[in-house]
């Protein structure tokens, strides 16, 4: 009686095991991103997006700072502990993320916008929607309210359980960063050079304290007090707004012509040497990113498309999903 020889190579059972392991590894790598969905609250809170938009629109009608403050809040949140609303936590001891030196300049209107939107959502869908998702939706809404592109927001984030001021240092771009420093920081979050240039376009709504750029117009170097990459007329304008002895807390619009409109003028300014920060101007000065700046300056549609792609990618950074984290009842405090 003959017995069939086992075929050479890998057994079917072994193949199945390996495939299963690969799937698990892929899920682990993707993390919570795979669980985000545009329709996450369709059943549990079907009116969510309208409720948030109404709250944000009301707040925006009271002060334009709502737009720039909310957009900056989202970026700062995602770059530190991931998009988990950890930046929203209030600490009576001054030890939370928002108390770090890099976050002290975050405008209160951004926090207030999310808190009010959360209260409106809780009144209809208590204990269902995370502060992290409300922040993501509110950010999309302020972009639209200022004339920027609308886009779908992936949802399903959970709120983080950690908020430490010590976590912020070294995790946010600094005004004096050059392109390579920015690229290294963005790459850690899976963001490309194009994403970096596109997200920088949010500075079209931005404003900055004089202290953040004064070195470029007064003390750049012993032989050249003004940064040579800066348009000299622009430098003079900034000097008029920020004289040497002025209060360093005075705020100057980063887009002097259309500061309340989300547009591509930011890139046109870079070409003209009107970037406020070194980190802005170097996007044009550096030959590696210059073509993208020129493209976005000449083609607003390309900028809007790239910005949407970058914002959706940013919104996936370090998200907590499933059983991770919590759904906070109050965005400023962990659940007890």
From TrEMBL:
PROSITE patterns tied to this protein: PEROXIDASE_1, PEROXIDASE_2, PEROXIDASE_4
Residues that hold heme b according to the record: 203
Cystine crosslinks: 45-125, 78-83, 131-331, 210-242
Protein residues bound to substrate: 173
Binding site for Ca(2+) 1: 77, 80, 82, 84, 86, 97
Active-site positions on this chain: 76
Domain of life: Eukaryota
Signal peptide: 1-34
Record-listed Ca(2+) 2 binding positions: 204, 255, 258, 263
A biological process from GO: response to oxidative stress
Catalytic activity: 2 a phenolic donor + H2O2 = 2 a phenolic radical donor + 2 H2O
Co-factor note (free text): Binds 1 heme b (iron(II)-protoporphyrin IX) group per subunit.
Cofactor dependence: heme b; Ca(2+)
One Pfam family from the record: peroxidase
Places the protein is found: Secreted
GO molecular function, one term: heme binding
Start and end residues of each Plant heme peroxidase family profile domain: 35-335
Presence of keyword Signal: yes
CDD domains in the cross-refs: secretory_peroxidase (cd00693)
Key words, A-Z: Calcium, Disulfide bond, Heme, Hydrogen peroxide, Iron, Metal-binding, Oxidoreductase, Peroxidase, Secreted, Signal
Predominant location category: secreted
Family, similarity comment: Belongs to the peroxidase family. Classical plant (class III) peroxidase subfamily.
Function: Removal of H(2)O(2), oxidation of toxic reductants, biosynthesis and degradation of lignin, suberization, auxin catabolism, response to environmental stresses such as wounding, pathogen attack and oxidative stress. These functions might be dependent on each isozyme/isoform in each plant tissue.
Annotated protein name in UniProt: Peroxidase
Lineage of producing organism: Eukaryota, Viridiplantae, Streptophyta, Embryophyta, Tracheophyta
Gene: LOC110802627
